[in-house]
Amino acid sequence: MTYNDNFIRACFGEDVDHTPVWYMRQAGRYDPEYRKIKEKYSLLEICRQPELAAEVTMMPVRKLGVDAAILYSDIMNPVASLGVNFDIVKNIGPVIENPIRTANDVDRLKPIDVEKDLSHILETIQILDRELEVPLITFAGAPFTIASYLIEGRPSKGYIHTKTLMYSEPQVWFRLMEKLGDMVITYLRAHVANGGKAFQLFDSWVGALAPKDFEIYVLPTIKRIFHELSDLKVPKIYFPGVSSGELLPLLHKLEADVIGLDWRVSIAEGRRRLNDGFAVQGNLDPYVLTAPMDVIKQQAKAIVDEGVQAPGYIFNLGHGLFPEASLDKLRELTHYVHEYSATMIRQR
Ligand code: CP3
């Protein structure tokens, strides 16, 4: 097998043989083999065993035929190095022991020490760099999304404590954004130094903000992150998460290569809102995967038809895979997008 770099080329807007495909949350509970591993070990226990974490990362690459791997980890892992105790609780998600709510709480957060506290993650990346025949995407949670867990203490619908802090104590908020921004920059830089070939910044929940508030309270930190990492030669992806269509026009000056779109904005409309300044990634509604295969293909075809109109397109979902998804359908979908896009690209 030769190394498949279609994903990297698409991120940089270069020519590809076929539209590259990967899925957010492609390592996960829809796979019976993964569920078996989870009977023995928790998510955090898997992450602490580099050989096992590397194996779990590679499983979907082998099974689905995708064009990129995404590191098996969680956006919460680096906050352990800041001195935050948390667990990933079954059927809930991240739960924080002592939520961050005051200036004192923010002051107590330590700077990240990747080599000392997160060496297992660097080791996993090194193993994957040796073994993979597709690029490895590493990732970090973006400051707003991480802050929402740190402040609420657990997954939340309305983000009441997060917004209370943001609107009522902006100085404390900006100090938290600064510290989380520093964390992300140091962490992602270490990923690339250890063999990461691209990275995605997950801002899964920032679509909860009005565009003008995103611009004031969050965007400056996002811009700083991409600016400070702009010397790295790897593709950089920003995923502004669900319901983020209204934020897209604000991203035009970001030093990122790719923007991830959710399913509420079409690929063509997403490109327009981004002023054609980026490659785009997305954006099948993950729940379409519950439909019969012909419906899935019809929806994927409509997305790919828009995607291949211009260079710089990566097929993905609009958000992460869910446990009820089917391995067989995902494999067939990947194959379909590869075949169909290759025909379209040859005709171009
Ligand atoms: O994509 C991948 O396959 C790589 C692994 C990955 C995980 N989390 C493992 C995981 C990635 C990229 C993440 C990122 C992550 N974690 C995000 C951003 C992506 C997104 O979906 O918006 C967020 C918001 C988190 C926080 C988090 N972790 C939540 C809300 C949950 C619970 C939700 C659920 O589906 O149960 C987790 C747990 C988690 N992280 C799981 C996995 C595979 C599911 C539980 C498990 O298998 O133990």
Q: How would you sum up this structure, described in words?
A:
- Helix content is 46%, strand content 11%.
- The chain is α/β, with parallel strands linked by helices and 348 residues long.
- The chain has a single domain (6-347), classed as TIM Barrel (Alpha-Beta Barrel).
- The strands form two sheets. It has a seven-stranded parallel sheet with strand order 1-4-5-6-7-8-9. The chain has a two-stranded antiparallel sheet with strand order 2-3.
- Helix 13 (267-273) links the parallel strand 7 and strand 8 (279-284).
- 48% of the residues are buried.
- Bound molecules: coproporphyrinogen III.
- Residues 24-29, 38, 43, 70, 72-75, 88, 93-94, 139, 155, 202, 204, 320 line the site of coproporphyrinogen III (CP3).
- Residues 24-29, 38, 43, 70, 72-75, 88, 93-94, 139, 155, 202, 204, 320 line the site of coproporphyrinogen III.
Number of folding domains?
Answer: 1
User: What CATH architecture label applies?
Assistant: Alpha-Beta Barrel
Instruction: Give, in spatial order, the strands making up the sheet with the most strands.
Output: 1-4-5-6-7-8-9
CATH secondary-structure class: Alpha Beta
Residue fraction in strands? 5-15%
- The percent of residues in helical segments reads 40-55%
SSE order, one letter for each helix or strand: HHHHEEEHHHEHHHEHHEEHEHEH
Radius of gyration: 19 Å
Low-confidence stretches: none
Name the ligand types: coproporphyrinogen III
How many alpha or pi helices?
A: 15
Number of strands: 9
Overall mean pLDDT stands at: 97
* Spatial gap, N to C terminus: 27 Å
Shape: globular
Q: Please outline the major beta sheet.
A: 7 strands, parallel
GO molecular function: uroporphyrinogen decarboxylase activity
EC number: 4.1.1.37
Subcellular location: Cytoplasm
Pathway: Porphyrin-containing compound metabolism; protoporphyrin-IX biosynthesis; coproporphyrinogen-III from 5-aminolevulinate: step 4/4
